[in-house]
Design a protein that fits this description.
Blueprint: E1 3-7, E2 10-12, E3 18-25, E4 33-39, E5 46-51, E6 57-59, E7 67-72, E8 77-82, E9 91-98, E10 106-107, E11 111-115
């Protein structure tokens, strides 16, 4: 059973950085494809970054060049480094995992990121 717990969110000023973590359990982490998504109030959920079991990464246009995704298979943990944060990055961020690329078997409960001056 896919179990994921996000951490690292908070309230920061525009231009700041945050590092999110996603601790996984209940499944063979190294064999799964992973993703970070976000949902802002009144908006649909958006996948912002993905990383495959072979560490191939993709990014949404809105975050490319500012966010970095990586995974630590030894620690069953995935990370999202977010730099140059903007108010429009404000959202609840979720991590997901799946056996098939692009299809996710489960998501965490999310961590709130608020970017405001």
């Amino acid at each position: 059973q896919v179990q994921l717990v996000e951490s690292g969110g908070g309230l920061v000023r525009p231009g700041s950085s945050l590092k999110l973590s996603c601790k996984a359990s209940g499944f063979p982490f190294e064999n799964y494809h992973l993703a970070w998504s976000r949902q802002a109030p009144g908006k649909e959920r958006e996948v912002v970054a993905t990383i495959t079991s072979l560490h191939f990464t993709t990014y949404a246009v809105s975050v490319k060049g500012r966010f970095e995704i990586w995974r630590d298979n030894a620690g069953d943990t995935m990370f999202l480094q977010m730099d140059s944060l903007k108010p429009e990055d404000t959202a609840v961020y979720y991590c997901g995992a799946g056996r098939v690329r692009g299809r996710y078997d489960g998501w965490g409960q999310g961590t709130q990121v608020t970017v405001s001056s």
